[in-house]
Amino acid sequence: MKGNLLQPVVFNVITIVAMLYALGQLVFEGPKLLTSSTGLIVMLDELAEESDLVDETVVSSFTADQDQRRAIFNNVIVVMVIAIAANVVANYLGRGRHHTNLSRIRELEAELRGLRGG
Q1: Helix pair 2-50, 56-117: axis angle to 10 deg
Q2: What per-residue confidence (pLDDT) applies to 53?
Q3: Around 3, how many Cα atoms within 13 Å sit in the side-chain half-sphere?
Q4: Dist. CA 20–CA 92, nearest whole Å
Q5: Largest CA distance in the chain
Q6: Do residues 46 and 53 touch, judged by C-beta distance below 8 A?
Q7: How far, in Å, CA of 10 to CA of 15, rounded?
Q8: 3-state SS string for 77-92
Q9: Would you give per-residue pLDDT tens digits along the chain (118 residues)?
Q10: pLDDT value of position 6
Q11: Which of the 8 DSSP states describes residue 21?
């Protein structure tokens, strides 16, 4: 029975670790990407003020794109946190059900042994 229980637990642990890794990458690497695009927007904005080579629509387009990426970035973080929490709760509830079922199986086996012996 332990071998059967071990497989789902191992896969759930792998899932949680993978999601935590992805979440860590987003949290630690994401701001670097957002910062570099902010610098680009500032540079384009300065160029737009200095010359007519950069159209104002280009700057506003980059700004809108950055806002959209920031929203997606935040949504991905929220979804990852929800997925990790849901997986942890599911594992906890599954363990409780497993122990309940296991104790009921032992009771039924004891009754069966009693019926065979009597």
Answers
A1: 170
A2: 60
A3: 0
A4: 18
A5: 100
A6: no
A7: 9
A8: HHHHHHHHHHHHHHHH
A9: 455 555 667 777 788 888 888 888 877 777 776 666 677 777 777 777 776 665 667 667 777 777 887 888 888 888 888 888 888 787 777 777 777 888 889 999 988 888 887 5
A10: 58
A11: H
Tokens matching residue 101: 């079922």
Residue with tokens 């979804």: 79
Residue indicated by tokens 């296991």: 102
DSSP reduced 3-state for 53: coil
Please say whether the dihedral angle defined by the alpha carbons of residues 107, 108, 110 and 111, taken in this order, is positive or negative: positive
* Inter-residue contact 23 to 77 (CB < 8 Å): yes
Q: Are 34 and 73 in contact (CB under 8 A)?
A: yes
Burial class (CB in 10 A: 0-12, 13-18, 19+), 59: buried
